[in-house]
Amino acid sequence: MTATTSSAPSLDLHRSVPRFGGFNRTYLAIEVKRRLSNWQSVFFTVGLPLVMFLTIGLPLRDTALGSTPVAAGGVSAAAYLMVSMAVYGSMFASASAGAAVASERAMGWSRQLRLTPLHPVANVVTKILSGLVMSLITIVAVYGAGAVAGIGLQPGAWLLSAVAVWLTSLVFTALGLLVGYLVPRDNALQFVGPVLAFMSIFGGLFYPLPDDGVMAVVGRLMPVYGVGDLSRAPLTGATVDAWGAVNLVVWLVVLVAGAALAFRRDTRRV
User: Is residue 168 part of a domain?
Assistant: First the structure.
């Protein structure tokens, strides 16, 4: 009597990764809706900068920033603060999008994503793009209020400064990601808010820094300094401060490298 053995079908355990690591518009739309459904996030990224501009900046629309009067084509202090408030809102939008990974890690969402074909890098890219979308909403709101209120700028200055505000917000996305991968869930956003406020106050975002002294040195070392200098340069047509450009590039490299290292350590655990 001969025993017959049937071979079990072989299983293919290889999991193919979709194009672009699984990045898709549906997941991005979900991330943006999550940001918009959080009233605290909307308030700090859109509402607060808009209110601060209308209450502090707008009354200064006839006050010249330099020696040239506003009536003669000079730039107003209101325009300076309009850009500054847009930068502040964009900073918070980008940093909050990055820091949101702390909550996802605490809830186990990162582990759930590891069970899907979505690549971790695609997840990070989605966070970055959702931050850029929120930054764009902030810029449109603040610049739109400035335009309606009669802030006088050349069309090129409007466009260039808005693009500069939008793109330089990537620095703070990297900061948010770094914080999100290092700080526990309950402390991530609480940590980001005061840090951004501190950097804005001492980095010359709301007022010009003095030419010399301790405050001048400290302010020029803040990552906000390079972002603000580049964003406000189109207002007067002045060339970007060389140190501001160096400041921006160095901080971007440092924060991206730090976020990448923290990201690798975290994904190694999940």
Answer: yes
Structural domain harbouring 181: 22-269
Residue 4 lies in a domain: no
More confident residue, 241 or 269: 241
Element (H, E) at 118: none
Interatomic CA distance for residues 263 and 266, integer angstroms: 5
Domain count within the chain: 1
Residue 182, in any domain of the structure? yes
* Dist CA 127 CA 23 (whole Å): 11
In contact, 189 and 179? CB cutoff 8 Å? no
64 three-class SS: strand
Element (H, E) at 243: helix 242-269
Residue 26 — very low, low, confident or very high, per pLDDT cuts 50/70/90? confident
Tokens of 5: 């053995």
Query: Bigger pLDDT: 118 or 168?
Result: 168
